[in-house]
Amino acid sequence: AGLHSTQLQFAARRVLKEYLCLAHGLVQPAPKTLQMPLRSFVVRGSARSLVDTRMGKRAATELRAVRHLLLPGGGCLSLVAVRIHTGRTHQIRVHLSTEGHPLVGDGLYGTGHCAAIGASRTFLHAQKLCLEVQGDRLDINAPLAADLRPALNALVVLDTRSRLAAAILK
């Protein structure tokens, strides 16, 4: 019964899904919701998605920058808190890339490896999942993956607000 209930919550989009990602450029700190329909397809056995206003399915991504960071040698990055209201293939990656803020390490929708900070994979972390289990709310929190921590430590925090966020994340 528990598995079926959980599956129904996912299908009804009642599960809260929160992520943390590192994106290129300065994402504005004010919360913003991106509403861009996505169409998924397969190329040589690999899933891809793109914004398609005619044939895409509804996709909503809520985001806010929690920290602005300076790359060694110049350039800015934003640590972004993301909540998805739909669960489309590569939704966060496509939406942020379309906004001009591809994720660090994303070779499919961005520039790929970011050697300056040692990012060996896409900097996207599933941080929190909230669902209902037997009438009670269950919050599942995952600490930042160990392989992503060095990338954050290699960066300089740009502003006071970001320094406060950095202290909380450590």
Q: How does this structure look, described?
A:
The structure is a single chain. The protein has 170 residues and is α+β, with helices and mostly antiparallel strands. It has one domain: 2-Layer Sandwich (Pseudouridine synthase), CATH 3.30.2350. The chain contains four helices and nine strands. Strands 1, 2, 5, 6, 7, 8 and 9 form a seven-stranded antiparallel sheet that branches. A two-stranded antiparallel ribbon has the order 3-4. Strand 3 and strand 4 form a beta hairpin. The model has no long low-confidence stretch (mean pLDDT 87). Pfam families: PseudoU_synth_2. GO terms for molecular function: pseudouridine synthase activity; RNA binding. This is Pseudouridine synthase RsuA/RluA-like domain-containing protein. Belongs to the pseudouridine synthase RluA family. It comes from Alexandrium andersonii.
Task: Report a brief summary of the structure.
One of its GO terms (molecular function) is RNA binding. Pfam families: PseudoU_synth_2. The chain is an alpha+beta fold and 170 residues long.
SSE diagram, text form:
Layout: H1 2-11, E1 16-24, E2 32-35, E3 38-43, E4 46-51, E5 60-70, E6 76-84, H2 91-98, E7 124-133, E8 136-141, H3 149-153, E9 156-157, H4 160-169
Antiparallel strand pairs: 1-6, 1-7, 2-5, 3-4, 5-6, 5-9, 7-8
Level-1 CATH class name: Alpha Beta
End-to-end distance: 38 Å
Element-by-element helix/strand order: HEEEEEEHEEHEH
Q: What is the total domain count?
A: 1
